[in-house]
Design goal:
Layout lengths: L1 H6 L19 H14 L3 E8 L2 E8 L11 E7 L7 H12 L6 E6 L4 H6 L20 H11 L6 E8 L6 E5 L8 H9 L9 E2 L2 E4 L2 E2 L13 H9 L3 E7 L4 H16 L4
Parallel strand pairs: 3-4, 3-5, 5-10, 6-9
Antiparallel strand pairs: 1-2, 2-4, 6-10, 7-8, 8-9
Helix pairs in contact: 2-3, 3-8, 6-8
This protein binds zinc ion.
Length: 270
């Protein structure tokens, strides 16, 4: 990892003023690559929504050992809900290419929840709506389709939602762990720290943080505008993490940070 830090400029670029001003991606090309790589590695793809020439892809990975017995855990990973956060879909592509999944875990991977947003390089969908506030009393067709897909899935042992934050000073994550299960947060931060600085702030997004970890005491039923994570923790899982890569660093640094975080979270299940 020392080599990686020498090659990439692991420092703030200072170019995000008032919003994300970094690299953009060709989301259709990225999703074609994800789809092709996933099929090459034996994943089952499902298109759960189509609109405006875009397809919403869900990938399902069952380990070979499940021919003999049930997988021991079921893990959900999603990204690309904000169209100005390119590191997430690229991290999904890299994870599929690396193909280092736990031998005994079932994985659901949704590599892009807002493809239209990426073609506009903006947070919201084609109507400017932030999909990550539409998971309660949902109004948008894409979130409704996503929820309909989620309702067909089993419960998840944990979820990972991959994001970026253009304002942050380093990587940070949110943990939801209402049953106080063994936390994966410190392991993720430790692994991410090798490839990307961690945000040292004591307050991040208005919440107390410690070494890049925010453990908010959320009350979903008191909030009308649910992000995806609120839906997941309420209906699908009792543990989950929202990972926030710092957009003001080079794109490969952010991609590597998200990949390192996912791999660290999956390691106990390997
Ligand atoms: Zn985001």
């Amino acid at each position: 990892m020392a080599d990686l830090r020498e090659i990439l400029r692991v420092q703030k670029l200072g170019k995000n003023h008032g919003g994300y001003r970094g690299e953009e991606i060709d989301i259709c090309a990225v999703l074609r690559d994800v789809h092709a790589a996933a099929q090459a590695y034996g994943w089952s793809p499902e298109i759960f929504h189509e609109a405006g020439g875009f397809k919403w892809l869900a990938l399902h990975h069952l380990p070979p050992s499940t021919i003999i017995h049930q997988p021991s855990s079921c893990i959900y990973i999603s990204t690309g809900i904000h169209g100005d956060e390119p590191a997430g879909p690229l991290a999904a592509l890299k994870l599929v290419h690396e193909n280092r999944w736990p031998k005994d875990a079932e994985i659901h991977l949704l590599p892009c929840l807002n493809p239209a947003g990426f073609t506009l390089n903006r947070r919201g969908n084609s109507d400017g709506i932030d999909l990550n506030r539409d998971y309660r009393n949902s109004q948008t067709a894409e979130v409704r389709a996503h929820i309909a897909w989620l309702e067909r899935q089993p419960k998840f042992d944990f979820y990972l939602c991959l994001h970026e934050d253009w304002e942050s000073h380093g990587f940070y994550l949110y943990e939801q762990n209402p049953d106080s299960k063994p936390s994966l947060a410190d392991k993720m931060i430790e692994a991410i720290h090798k490839v990307c600085p961690i945000d040292p702030s004591e307050i991040i997004e208005g919440r107390p943080a410690n070494n890049g970890i925010i453990r908010p005491n959320i009350q979903p039923h008191e909030r009308p505008d649910w992000p995806e994570a609120f839906y997941l923790i309420t209906h699908k899982s009792r543990q989950g993490y929202t990972l926030e890569a710092p957009s003001d660093f080079e794109l490969p640094v952010r991609v590597n940070a998200l990949v390192a975080g996912v791999n660290a979270a999956l390691k106990p299940f390997a």
